[in-house]
Backbone:
């Protein structure tokens, strides 16, 4: 099995947290978003992941350090790493075709901007699978239309009238990715009108027109990570699902930890209450603070505050009265009680 991870975007909605770190590599509930995604795939399928294909952007942003991090993730599953670059952002279909030389055999395509938790079951009797989440307001999503045999017959983006409540979450299985490649190849030779993009859905719909069988499969837990608020909510939910044990931190004075909480390496906490729903990454110091439903990135120092629903970037010093704040990397905020 091959796993394709298109991740060439720069996470504009998550700036300043994505100025140096691609969104799929932001640590949520103890590991990067893309690592959670691959881990769930590896735990679910009954076959080995042979190769992970990352489709990234230009070398100025996705530099050697980023590529090394991606290789390290692949190595956790004894999988080969292949890197392709999408320099022009021309859509989801274009992104996949940047890796056209690898598009063959059984494959999963998974977009690395969401968290998932739950089993992905591969049905070898069909030509493709599209994972979906049942939602209350389908008009905000792309949804699948099913026939009486529960086969997918159409993909509809943000329907104005009700079609189904099964929203596409961005994870797909193809029994033979070469078929998708051949359907997308002539499509990418067409000239785009202003504002248009080459879409992955086009290739899938062409396959459906030729009587290839696609089924939908409901995913139990799907969490969006598109904005700071959504990342914080997804972090809390993922911690509840994973229930990690906060172990190995240095405790000074009175400390209360209300689970679920994730703590990385070299954490020092003094006279503080932490949790629930908190992720603290490596090399963090926290003093005289109450923190809940928040993420603290690595190498940061937090003191004399009460934080909730907050995202604190890496290498940051925060000593302030704010209760809800998004603070980017390398920031410094200190209160001045003398003024």
Residues:
């Amino acid at each position: 099995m091959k796993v394709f991870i298109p991740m060439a975007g720069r996470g504009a909605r998550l700036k300043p947290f994505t100025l140096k770190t691609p969104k799929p590599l932001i640590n949520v509930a103890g590991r990067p978003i893309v690592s959670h995604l691959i881990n769930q795939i590896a735990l679910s399928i009954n076959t080995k992941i042979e190769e992970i294909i990352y489709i990234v952007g230009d070398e100025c942003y996705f530099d050697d350090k980023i590529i090394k991090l991606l290789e390290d993730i692949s190595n956790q599953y004894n999988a080969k790493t292949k890197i392709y670059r999408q320099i022009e952002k021309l859509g989801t279909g274009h992104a996949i075709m940047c890796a056209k030389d690898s598009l063959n055999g059984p494959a999963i395509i998974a977009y690395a901007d969401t968290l998932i938790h739950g089993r992905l079951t591969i049905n070898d009797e069909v030509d493709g699978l599209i994972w979906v989440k049942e939602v209350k307001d389908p008009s905000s999503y792309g949804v699948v239309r099913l026939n009486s045999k529960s086969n997918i017959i159409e993909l509809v983006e943000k329907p104005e009238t009700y079609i189904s409540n099964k929203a596409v979450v961005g994870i797909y299985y193809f029994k033979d990715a070469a078929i998708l490649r051949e359907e997308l190849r002539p499509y990418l030779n067409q000239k785009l009108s202003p504002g248009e993009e080459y879409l992955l859905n086009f290739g899938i719909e062409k396959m459906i027109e030729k009587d290839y069988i696609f089924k939908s499969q409901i995913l139990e837990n799907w969490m969006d990570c598109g904005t700071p608020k959504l990342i914080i909510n997804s972090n809390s939910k993922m911690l509840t699902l994973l229930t990690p044990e906060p172990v190995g931190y240095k405790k000074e004075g009175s400390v209360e930890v209300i689970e679920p909480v994730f703590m990385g390496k070299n954490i020092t906490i003094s006279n503080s209450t932490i949790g629930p729903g908190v992720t603290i990454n490596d090399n963090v110091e926290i003093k005289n603070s109450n923190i809940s439903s928040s993420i603290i990135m690595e190498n940061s120092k937090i003191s004399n505050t009460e934080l909730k629903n907050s995202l604190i970037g890496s290498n940051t010093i925060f000593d302030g009265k704010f209760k809800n704040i998004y603070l980017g990397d390398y920031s410094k905020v200190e209160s001045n009680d003398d003024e």
Remarks:
- The longest strand covers residues 166-174.
- Helices lie at 33-44, 64-75, 92-97, 177-187, 200-209, 228-242.
